Amino acid sequence: MPKSFTTPHHGIMLVLSSPSGAGKSSIAKALLEGDSNLRPSVSYTTRPKRPAERDGVDYTFVSPDAFSEMIAAGAFLEFAKVFDHYYGTPKAPIEALLAQGHDILFDIDWQGTQQIAQHSRGDLITIFILPPSTQELERRLKTRAQDHEKVVFSRMEKASDEMSHWAEYEYVIINETLSESIHTVRAIIRAEQHKRARQMGLSSFVTALRTGQ
After folding, report:
1. Side-chain half-sphere exposure of 146, counting CA atoms within 13 A
2. Which residues are paired to 81 by β-bridges?
3. Which tens digit of pLDDT belongs to each residue from 84-117?
4. What does pTM read for this prediction?
5. Are 155 and 22 spatial neighbours (Cβ–Cβ below 8 Å)?
6. Looking at the domain assignment, is residue 78 inside a domain?
7. Cys-Cys link to 19, which of 161, 162, 187, 211 (CB 3.0-4.6 A)?
8. CATH number of domain containing 197
């Protein structure tokens, strides 16, 4: 009889996108807390650091000049300008984590997703998170109490454009209940990990089963 076999899998690049306030950050936090093999992609940004944020953990905060130098050096897998500030995914740390067999979680917009797709080598999973209604999206933005009223208004204006890209994603989740949305994303991850092409060593295991080894 072959030994019990737990199939290692190729690293997955998991993208969560949504309009601001739809809940992707809360979903991402829960996923990271519940899966030690899932690592966050820490973006570089030129926007100011919020009081509760930690440099190098939530984002790596850099000057516009430093960000421009990284663009020129080809150091980003993707980058975009959002609400007057730049955000970008550094290439080297992502490649290192994938080489170590980790799954990586990306919290990026549709523009970044399109750029990441060019480097994914078939291991990209894309999920778009929608709010249950426009009214609920506005309520969530206002109750976060992190942004000024004019910023909330700007985010609501941009939300329509962001949501127009939902059909470019493989999976779409309407985040009506946070716990259910988290459960759904976890189910997607598990299903993707069990795709035949991602299961390393499966051929040898099946051969051993067939020959009674």
Report:
1. 12
2. 86
3. 999 999 999 998 888 888 999 998 889 899 999 9
4. 0.82
5. no
6. no
7. 162
8. 3.40.50.300
Tokens of 186: 């976890």
Contact 104, 11 (CB under 8 A): yes
17 lies in a domain? yes
Q: Is residue 167 domain-resident?
A: yes
Residue 151 lies in a domain: yes
Residue 146's domain spans which residues? 13-41+102-211
Give the tens place of pLDDT for each residue, 147-176.
Answer: 567 777 777 878 889 999 999 999 999 999
Q: Is 3 helix (H, G, I), strand (E, B) or coil?
A: coil
Place of tokens 């426009």: 134
Q: Which amino acid is at 68?
A: S
Residue 98 neighbours by CB under 8 Å, 6+ apart:
11, 13, 104, 123
How many domains does one find in the chain? 1
